Amino acid sequence: MAQIDQILNRLDRLPAIPVAVTQLISNLCSSSDDPDKESTAHIVMRDSALTASVLKAANSATAGFSVPAVCVQEALQRVGENHLLKIALAHASQQALGGEIAEYGLGSGEAWLGALVGALAAEEISKYTRKGDPNVAFTAGLLRDIGKLAMGLVVDPAKIGTLLSESIEDITSRERAEWGFDHAQVGAALGRVWGLPDELLNGIRFHHTPPSDDMAEDLYDIVHCADNMALTLGYGVGIDGLKYSINLESRENLSLNRAAFEDILVSVRLRMNNFLDDTQGQAA
């Protein structure tokens, strides 16, 4: 990783992450009784666009109320801290992940939709298998492909599209053979620049190649399988998405047989449909 860190440190510009995202990540992944944790409501209220998005989504999620929530605190009471955090993080991350990533064949909004489906899938897998922390899994799933944001700055972007189009093997293996690193490793290095915790950095780094040695963690298998689920559902596919295969050992480690895999896919599809309905096209 040292080589990638050195390359990123030499760049004049890097993809930025909104301050609200890092603060929401800290809240979602930290202990609920952390005395230094700023309230979710305060984080959301500092950004007017985020406030509007959260209120819209929260009101749709609690449509049974005759009067809509008019402030973040009221929305918080209705949907709960954990759910509001995920709504807020999903919307706040759109600023960083919502653009086009042409090198990987992802149009505007496609990377973000793929990120969101991966987040929902990771959370569902964690809950279904009772392994890992669902909040950490959600966050790692959301951020797993941030390396694609920076790859075009690290190497010649024209060569990325050529490599992806011509390769018939696992893309990360081809990237490593060509440049000495892959987009997942670049993502971990970018996450370090953003100040993300090590647990998330490793979830990003290993989402295509979960280790089976002493470094193995349930989170890596969860995010890996979630990535596969997102691609199976047709989100975030781009040029390379159909050239990845699932690690069967990861499925075995999580005891995800075919029936369980399909059950989770259905849950993720329904949750994603509800999210898109709730936001009335904001995600498109």
Instruction: Count the E strands.
Output: 0
What sort of overall outline do the alpha carbons produce when their principal axes are compared?
globular
CATH topology of the largest domain: Hypothetical protein af1432
CATH architecture of the largest domain: Orthogonal Bundle
Any idea what the CATH superfamily of the largest domain is called? Hypothetical protein af1432
What do the pLDDT scores average to? 90
Q: Are there runs of 5+ residues with pLDDT below 50, and where? A: none
Approximate strand percentage: under 5%
Strand count, sense and barrel status of the largest sheet are: none
For the record, the CATH class of the largest domain is: Mainly Alpha
Along the chain, the helix and strand elements come as HHHHHHHHHHHHHHHHH
Radius of gyration: 18 Å
Give the number of helices.
17
Task: Tell me the span between the first and last alpha carbons.
Answer: 35 Å
Give a brief description.
Helix content is 65%, strand content 0%.
Which short descriptors sum up this protein?
284 residues; mainly alpha; Hypothetical protein af1432; 2 domains; 17 helices; 65% helix; 0% strand; globular
